[in-house]
Amino acid sequence: MSSSSKAFQWLSLVGIIWLQSINGTNTTFPAYSSQLKNTLSMSQLQINNLVFASDAGKLFGWFSGIAAIYLPLWLVLMIGSLLGLIGYGVQFLFVTNQLASPAYWQVFLLTMVAGNSVCWINTVCYVVCIRNFPFHQQVAVGLTTSYQGLSAKIYTDIVSAFFSSSPHKRARAYLLLNSLLPLIVCAVVAPFVRDIDVVTGKQPRNMATGFRLMFVITIATGIYAVITSLGSMIGIDRMIGTGVFLLIPLVIPIAEKIRDILSRRWSLADRENKVYNVSIDDQNGLESIESGVVKEEEEEEHTTTVQVHNEVSEVQVQHGFGVREEIGVKLMVRRIDFWLYFLVYFFSATIGLVFLNTLGQITESRGSSKTSSLVSLSSSFGFFGRLMPSLLDYFFARSKHMISRPAFLVAVAAPIAGVFFLLLNPANVSLIISTAVIGVCTGAITSIAVSITTELFGTKKFSINHNVVVTNISIGSFLFGYSSALLYRKEGNDDGSCLGMACYKGTFIIWGSLCTLGTVLALMLYARTRKFYSKRS
Q: CB-based contacts of 534: which residues, under 8 Å, 6+ apart?
């Protein structure tokens, strides 16, 4: 592959980073849900059902998978952004009274459409990473997906910088940004979203250096996000800083393009300076030299072929391409390991996501007005959580001390259970710590689940198998969200509002107990898959 192709290869990765950084529009819901509740006169139960609607939209994400097979990727991308424009844009018109007051079913349906738009953009991001980085698929997917954890912070910073501090105006601002920003970014990135001519038979050179630099940039971005979430910087300064960090990855494709231009000039100069004077008397000697060179080249080619083959094998092992079995959905749902895995996800990451989606109401019930700061904090720590599995996998896969992915599940599921009991403490610091821990652990489970699905059930039916696994999110959003809303209403006033620790006390106890069960199930999954992972190491 030429350096020019490598420049476009890296440019496509930068484009995916930008797409993922604005694709978490559903994560901004806690920042404006309380205002939406008051503006549209909704009950807490109806608000929780909107959270379910957003996740239910992902149940139809398989449409985007089919579209990616038959349509150009840029068109799939634009369809996703247009669905978001419709879903959030019409809600914006309702809130600003540009349209008549909506029926609840209309808002519910629009929220589903908006939730489904995320799937279309995600599908394009996954396809581009897998096709353009065949030797580093999981690292590319994991690294870029981590940027989706920054979405809530990016939107919060923009709203803080350019819009009024009035809660109702901020709610309108979030809906406006959710509808327009993905459309703008998708239009900018669409020309870069295409297949690059990557030679799959041999591993490209200098790719490791690029990924190391990308990890450094990504970690620096995450540290900046955490510091500014905890600090007191004004909105516009935070926004400019985040924008600069999102532009820094462009250094890699630009450097690759410059290297390509310089190497071409040097190559041309070398050819002009080389002069060969071969006399007729030297032909025999030259022929013997040529035959020796040919033989040497053949041996070198054979050695290189073996070396490349070994490198491919090493890369496949290093990045987790080893699978236990290749099965489809019908066989997968008959496996005990599937149900253990499904329930571990259900009783850990899904409960964490429900907590983050109801963070606005939880914060309000505790008498705090720092909802936006907490949403930004959870976003920043979620970014690191999503990045963590890829970081460990890339740098420590060959280490004897590297734990298996099911063991990693145990390690990140247990803290979620613990912090729900910590939330029974009324201190604000307990809410801050719990939000950060749930953000990290939920992001990590969401990211590592892609690899676990691949390793336990194969790559051929991955898109279908993993969609079945993540249906637990929609089910959990409804069950856990609905039950928490019932407990909230039970403790609330006649007008449906609730203030005080009692509003979510029962919910936290139930969620903490269920997450403890999830940790036990994760231990069982680890024990059942230990033999398989020990062979892979």
A: 404
Q: Which two tokens stand for residue 377?
A: 């904090």
Relative orientation angle of helices 167-189 and 73-95, to the nearest 10 degrees: 160
Three-class secondary structure assignment of 337-404: HHHHHHHHHHCCHHHHHHHHHCHHHHHHHCCCCCHHHHHHHHHHHHHHHHHHHHHHHHHHCCCCCCCC
Rounded Cα distance, 161 and 155, in Å: 10
- Mind listing the pLDDT tens digit of every residue in the chain (537 residues)? 455 678 888 999 999 999 999 998 888 887 787 778 777 788 777 887 888 888 888 778 778 877 887 889 999 999 999 999 999 999 999 888 888 878 889 999 999 999 889 989 988 888 888 788 877 777 888 888 889 888 888 898 888 888 867 777 888 899 999 999 999 999 999 998 877 766 555 556 667 788 889 999 999 998 888 888 776 666 678 888 889 999 999 999 998 888 878 877 776 655 555 544 444 445 555 454 445 544 444 444 444 443 434 433 333 433 444 678 888 888 989 999 999 999 999 999 999 999 988 888 888 888 877 777 788 888 888 888 888 888 877 776 666 666 788 899 999 999 999 999 999 998 889 999 999 999 999 989 988 887 888 888 887 777 677 778 888 888 898 899 889 888 888 887 766 678 888 889 999 999 999 999 999 999 999 999 888 888 765
* pTM for this entry: 0.77
